[in-house]
Amino acid sequence: MLSRIFTDCVSFVAMWRKGIKEAFAFDEHFNQMGFIRKP
For residue 6, what are the domain limits? Predict the structure, then answer.
């Protein structure tokens, strides 16, 4: 579980730094952090 949380956090930081607002993801955490999930 902890490795999954770490992976999500790394993804969020990378996306924020690059200005990415959309993600191809099935994980609800992306919505909770303000990203738009696709599909």
Answer: 2-38
The predicted pLDDT at position 4 comes to 80
Taking only the tens place, the pLDDT of each residue in 5-31 is 899 999 999 999 999 999 999 999 999
Structure tokens belonging to residue 22: 């959309």
Residues whose CB is less than 8 angstroms from the CB of residue 15 and which lie 6 or more positions away in sequence, other chains included: 21, 23, 35
Total residues found in the chain within this entry: 39
> What gap in Å lies between CA 25 and CA 3, rounded to an integer?
17
Q: State the total domains in the chain.
A: 1
Note the Cα 1 to chain centre separation in Å: 16
